[in-house]
Design a protein that fits this description.
Elements (H helix, E strand, L loop, with lengths): L6 E8 L6 H6 L8 E11 H7 L5 E3 L6 E3 L2 H25 L3 E9 L1 H9 L4 E5 L16 H4 L4 E5 L8 E5 L7 H15 L2 E7 L12 E5 L4 H11 L1 E6 L7 H11 L3 E4 L3
Parallel strand pairs: 1-2, 1-6, 2-5, 6-7, 8-9, 8-11, 9-10, 11-12
Antiparallel strand pairs: 3-4, 7-12
Helix pairs in contact: 2-3
């Protein structure tokens, strides 16, 4: 995993109404003896602001069903209110966890701003709450520019504490197999849940003896991986760099289909 010497820089996208502190606590796995430098990124969505200024748009109250004209002023107030709320929660959580943290606000189109901000980060954390229509509503292909930067990614599907095991796609022939195994073990130890290694059928004979349970998969297709994660009720799936798969295509497909969180590791 490529990390800055002495400092691990984490970009944490903030768009939900609340922060999963368990997920933030789990980021300590990435310190590797370094200082964690955490940046909470809040994007004021320019597309949403522009949509609020279009004439004739209405909004429907989910509680009462009442229909009213969409007010640009109210949209801006709601964005400002959410920004202040999430800033307070993020800074309090970071303080409780003794993280070096800063809160950053940018204005623009969400994915353009996220891709730009990710350039100087070692790890990008994308929160895709099951209860929120923000990042969760976007098709996996929207993340393609971000994924093309070869960064390490953690896609968090809240709440973090769901799921009963960590599943790591483990290829003994991969150049970063030791990194994958090390991080997977740290997550399993911190979460106090089982680690399962999913190994390509043709590589199972090359697997050195480990204390972890291993499962041979005929292939690393989307269907096989999704079925395994659902059957084992995974909390986190770890995707390594491997010559046996087109990880970018697989990652973008899995984003749409997995309910568990997803970590992609670079060499």
């Amino acid at each position: 995993m490529k990390m800055t010497k002495q400092i691990t820089r984490i970009l944490f996208t903030l768009e939900c109404d609340s922060i999963d502190q368990d997920a933030m606590r789990a980021l300590a796995v990435f310190s590797n003896g370094n200082t964690l430098e955490l940046t909470g990124l809040y994007v004021e969505d320019q597309d949403l602001v522009n949509a609020g200024q279009l004439p004739g748009l209405v909004e429907i109250s989910l509680s009462s069903g009442e229909i009213s004209k969409l007010s640009p002023l109210r949209v801006n107030r709601q964005i400002s209110s959410q920004q202040k709320k999430i800033k307070t929660q993020f800074e309090a959580s970071a303080r409780n966890l003794n993280y070096n943290a800063m809160f950053k606000v940018v204005k623009g189109r969400v994915f353009e701003m996220l891709t730009e901000a990710a350039i100087d980060s070692d790890i990008v954390v994308v929160s895709r709450s099951l209860r929120h229509t923000g990042m969760r509503a976007h098709h996996g292909s929207r993340f393609e520019p971000l994924v093309s930067q070869h960064t390490n990614f953690l896609f968090i599907n809240e709440p973090w504490r769901t799921g009963e095991c960590i599943i790591a796609l483990y290829d003994p022939a991969a150049s970063n197999h030791s990194v994958t195994l090390d991080v997977a073990r740290k997550f399993a130890e911190r979460e106090q849940i089982e680690l399962i290694l999913a190994v390509p059928q043709k590589e199972i004979s090359n697997l050195a003896e480990t204390t972890e349970r291993s499962i041979a998969l005929q292939d690393w297709s989307e269907d096989s991986i999704v079925q395994l994660c659902q059957f084992k009720n995974a909390r986190l799936l770890i995707l390594p760099e491997s010559k046996n798969l087109d990880w970018r295509k697989l990652l973008l497909g899995l984003i749409d289909r997995l309910q568990c969180s997803l970590l992609r590791l670079e060499r």
